[in-house]
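User: Hi! Is it possible to get a structure for several chains at once, not just one? Here's what I have:
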Amino acid sequence: MHFLPKLIFISLTVLFANNSIAQDSANDAEQLKIAALEALMSAPPDRALPLVAKVLASDNSDEIKLRALFVLSQIDLPEAQTILLETARNDGGELRLEAIRMIGISGDPTGTAGLADIYRSGDNDTKEAVLQAYLIADDTQSVYEIAANAASDEEFDEAVHILAVMGANDELRQLRDRPGSSESLIDAYAISGDVESLRDLAMDNSNPERQTQAIHGLGIVGGDEVNTTLVVIYRGTESPEVRDAALHGMMIADHDEGVLELFRSSQDAEEKTELLRMLVMMDSDAAMDAIEKALDGGT
Amino acid sequence: MINEETLTLYFYDELDAAERQRVEAVLNSDAKLAAAYAKLCRELEQWRDAETDRAPIHLIERWHDSIDQAARAETKAAARTQSSFHWFSFAWGAAITAVLVVGVGIGVYFSGNTSVISTTADPLYGIPVISQLTTPVSFTRGLQLHLQDSQSEIASLPTDASADRVLLLAQIIEQNRMFERAAKQNNSPGVARVLRAFEPILIRLASDEIAPKDAEALRAQLAFELSVVLTKLAQDTSDETHST
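Assistant: Yes, the chains can be modeled jointly so their relative placement is included. Here is the combined structure:
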C-alpha cells in the first residue's frame, strides 16, 4: 500500500508534536492525535506497535493514553500483551483499570494469566476490573478460581455473580459445598437458570431458610418443570413457611393453574381463602371461577 | 437510503406503515434495489423454516420475570456495595435484550448466507441463536453494518436522560448481544470479546444518573473504539481479499 509510509509519517508527526502546537489549539491537537491513533490500525502491527508504545511512554494526556491502550489491545503481538500487563501492574488510576480491561479484550492467555496476581494484590476497584476482564474474555475457569479461593464473602459473592452472568452452571455447582455461601449461589442459580441445582436445594428441608430461597429462585426461572415441582413442594410439606414460599414461587412463575388446582382440591376454608386471594393478586382469569364457586358455597 | 436491514425488516413486515410505503415506493422506482430485494427474499425464504419463530408467550413471560429478577438483584447488589459498576447490570442488559429480541428477525444481518444454519438456545435465557458455520464474509459484512449503525446512533443520542435514550440504548445493546453470540458461532472470539466489552459502557450510558460530562466521555470512548474495530475489520477483509 503506497499510502502507508505517508500515513505513518503523518501519525508520527501528529503524535509527537507536543511542543509545536500552540496552547489555544490543544484540544484540536488531542483530536488529531486520537485520529492518528485510529489510523494506525491500518498499518501492519509490527509498525504500529512501537508508535503506540511511544504514545504510552510520552507525556500525553490520559485520554490519549486510554485510546492508545485500546489500539494496543487490537494488536496481535506478544509485545502488546507485555505493555498492557506492565501498565496494569505499574500504572495507577484509570490507566491501570483500562489496561486490565484491554487484557480481557485481547483475550491472550498470557495476559489473562497475569491478571491473577494483579487481582490478589489489588484494591477493590482493581479486583472488580479483573473480574470484568475475565467476563469479557469469557474465562470462566479464572473466575471460578477466584470464587473457590475467595478470602471474604464479598469476594466470593462478586465472583459468583460473574459466573451467573456467564451462565457457568458447572462452575457454580462445584461451589455448592462452600459453607455460608448459599444466598449468593441461589441467586446465581436463578440468574443462570439452573433448575436442577435449585430443585435439589428446594426439596432439601435440612435448611429451611435456604429451602425457601431456592423455592423463590425456582419461581424466577419458571417453566413447566418448575411449575410441577412447586405444586409438589406445596403439597408435600408440613412447614407453613415452605408452603408459603411455594405459593409465592407459583405467583412469580405466573402458575395460576397450579394455584387453582390447589384451591379446588383443598378442603380447608382458611387455606382456600389464602389461595383465592393469591389468584386475585395474580390477576388470573381463573379467579372469577374460584370466586363464583366460593360464593356458591361449592368447592 | 434503504439498506439491507430495512429491506429485511420489510420482508418480515416489521416496518411501520409509513416506512413500509416509502420502501415500496423506492422498490417500484429503483430497479437495482428491487433486484437486491428479490435476491434477499430468495435467501431469506431458503432458511425461513430454520429461522426462529416468534417466541411463545410463556417464554416472553419468563423473560419479563428475568428482568424483574435482575432488577431486584441489582438493587440488592447496589445496597450491598458502593462499587462503581454493578455486575448485575450485565444481567439487566441481558434481560432487556431477551425481551427486545422477541419477534425481531435475527437473521437481519446474515442474509447473504448460503450455509447450513442451525438454531440453539442461549444457556442463560433460552434465547434462540443462529449458528453460522461457514460464512464469515456475510457475518463480517453484517457486523460492519451493525457497528456503523451503532456509531451513528450513539453520535445522535439524545443528551438528556429520556425514555427515548434508554430505549435506543436498549436496542443497541440487543443488537450488540446478538452479534456477540454470532461472533462466537462464527469462530470470531476477538470480535465477541470487544462486543462484550462495549456492553457495560452502553449500560452506563443508559443510566439516568450519569452526569452529562461522564456521558460525553463514554460516547467519545465508544466512538473511538467502534472506529478502531471498523478499521481493523476493513483491514482484515482487505488482507483476505488480497491474499486470495
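Chain A touches chain B through 46 residues (CB under 8 Å). Chain A has 19 helices and no strands.

User: Great, thank you!
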